[in-house]
Amino acid sequence: MDDPRSWLILHRAPGIGVRTLLQLLERVGPPETLLAADPGRLAECGLGQDSVSYLRSPDQAVLDRDIAWLEQPGNRLITLYSSDYPPLLRDLPDPPPMLYVCGDPDLLHLPQLAMVGSRRPTPGGQKTAREFSKHLAARGLIITSGLADGIDGAAHRGALEGGKTVAVMGTGVDRIYPANNRELAHAIVDAGGALVSELPLGSPPLPGNFPRRNRIISGLSLGVLVVEAALRSGSLITARLAAEQGREVFAIPGSIHNPMARGCHDLIRNGAKLVESAQDIVEELAPLLGLMVADDSMPSAGAGVGAPKVDGDYGQLLDDMGFDPISVDELVQRSGRKVEEVSSMLLLLELEGHVSSAPGGFYCRIR
Question: Which terminal residue of the chain, N or C, has fewer Cβ atoms less than 10 Å from its own Cβ?
């Protein structure tokens, strides 16, 4: 049985990253053997003096805090040698040697779909992510994302409405980032989901942590769905990693005028599967799951689920808007109405949930 204390010492040692630790485990042996190894042997494996010294005399106060966290209900440390280590992750060329889990670790063995996208999506993109996530979670898929603002948060929230979700973090699992998602993180755990990180407890949100996190998001999943992403986006890193890992890559197309759709278009251009409805994903993953049949009630990217039809002048104004962001001035020109009338109608449509204001004084129709 794994000794968590030995793993924690290795994880805290300076100069021992993922690849170095994997090499040490392969060349020297399990953590207990590593800690007992002759310093000369460790030096031969490339460890510096600081690393060797720490292994001989670790910070006991920090180690005690880590152990205290593990002793709390719902907290787990899953190591590469554990029988419950996620099998899909184990196949990666650089699997995380250990995972800190707050919540239900069994979810990591269930079929997962990763959903990622822009931190600043359009209202329509956010709504699409939430609806897709809700319906796919209700069909039995665990929705996995990165707990970031925007599409990540929408995916987690939608999954909570339909099933379970896993948040893979770029910080220590005890340090919620961004802070405004703290309530969401607690809701995920309370609903039977899980927070997961390979980083030591207390790790801050350093830029280099997030690409590492992305390989776990894609590595845990059967496929990755990208919902709105700019051409230079961390979401595209996740999609690229997914393709390299042999996972399915899905992308939802958008307006050619929406810069947040260009990343998705680039993915589709390079072989990602174009998705117009959640059923497209179900059908693509069905051979891997051995379940799920056609369901006409599943949402599409172009229409809300059960959204009431708007008739009369208000319905005409929605038709005049189209589905791209539009300014009041342009809508006045399209509709032939006065500014005061258009502004008043937009206010009512926004209150009723049919449109949403966007940055720059634009309005978006919520699809």
Answer: N
Whole-structure pTM value: 0.81
Q: Which CATH number goes with the domain that contains 348?
A: 1.10.10.10
pLDDT tens by residue, 322-367: 877 888 999 999 999 988 888 888 888 887 778 887 767 788 887 6
Which are the contacts of 259, defined by CB distance < 8 A and separation ≥ 6? Answer: 230
Q: Which amino acid is at 326?
A: I
Q: Are residues 42 and 182 in the same domain?
A: no
Question: Is 100 domain-assigned?
Answer: no
By residue range, what is the domain housing residue 3? Answer: 1-71
Number of domains present in the structure of the chain:
3
